[in-house]
Amino acid sequence: MGSAGEAKQQRIAELRRRMAAIPARGAEPSAQVPAAAELQRESLPVPAALENLLPDGGLVKGSVVAYTGASSLLSGLLATVTASGAHAAVVGLPRLGLLAAAEMGARLDRLAVVASPGSEALEVASVLLDGLDLVVLDLNGASVPLTRTRILTAKARSKNATLLVTGGSWSGPALRIDTRIAGYGGLGRGCGRLRTVSLAVEVHSRSAQPRTGHLALCPGNGRVEWVETKQAAVEPLRPVRHAVS
């Protein structure tokens, strides 16, 4: 009793119980099931300003996305996905701004948070893929072995869910999104209040040439939102170390 193995099993069992209470994903029982080819390219929505940079206009279901850079855009992705009616989870990111996500329109009742999964992060993510549309997983600086990436990639594909990994090394993602902060707006004017944050974004995928662009997070329509901007003066991102394969 009280062994580490028993504690791990209890934790996973508790996750499964919580997921059982989440409404089933997908269409109503009477709805027509889409063809396999159509299902393969079905995507989760992203902030409108990011759509043109992604080959499919969103995060393809059943795929793995590798993300690096500003956590503010992660909050924006979670906000858009949950606002659309989908369910998401965040694993291993205790500092992710949930308040910021809510200000971007997130539905926090559709977002599960496992702040400190410890050494069980991959197992927790695997369980969550069973019933959620998007799982955001922080790798805590780890380089995930190829055998484990293949298992989780197959799991995401079979469950028609999207796994987004950050903070580590992952072999062969279908899509890679790299961001960096390019500048701020509002500082030095009036009382010096920060009003906008600009990001340089670079996207690599298997199905298209690399794409680059600039987004800005700024107040609008009673909340904060992402808008597409043009900043030719911003120096390009550094080359991506791990090419998409």
- What structural category do the secondary elements indicate? alpha/beta
Largest sheet geometry: 9 strands, mixed
CATH superfamily: P-loop containing nucleotide triphosphate hydrolases
Strand content: 25-35%
What is the CATH topology descriptor? Rossmann fold
- End-to-end separation in angstroms reads 45 Å
Number of strands: 11
Categorize the overall geometry. globular
The whole-angstrom Rg is: 18 Å
Tell me the count of domains: 1
- The second-level CATH architecture is 3-Layer(aba) Sandwich
Helical proportion? 25-40%
What are the low-pLDDT stretches, counting only 5+ consecutive residues below 50? 27-40, 232-243
Strand order of the largest sheet: 5-4-6-7-3-8-9-10-11
Helical segment count: 7
Average pLDDT level: 84
> What is the name of the CATH class?
Alpha Beta
H and E order? HHEHEEHEHEHEHEEEEE
Describe the structure.
With 245 residues, the protein is an alpha/beta fold. It has a single domain, classed as P-loop containing nucleotide triphosphate hydrolases (Rossmann fold). Helices cover 27% and strands 27% of the residues. It has seven helices and eleven strands. A nine-stranded mixed β-sheet has the order 5-4-6-7-3-8-9-10-11, sandwiched between helices. Strands 1-2 form a two-stranded antiparallel ribbon. A hairpin with a 5-residue loop joins strand 9 and strand 10 (211-220). Helix 1 packs parallel to helix 6 (121-128). It is globular. Mean pLDDT is 84; it is low at 27-40 and 232-243.
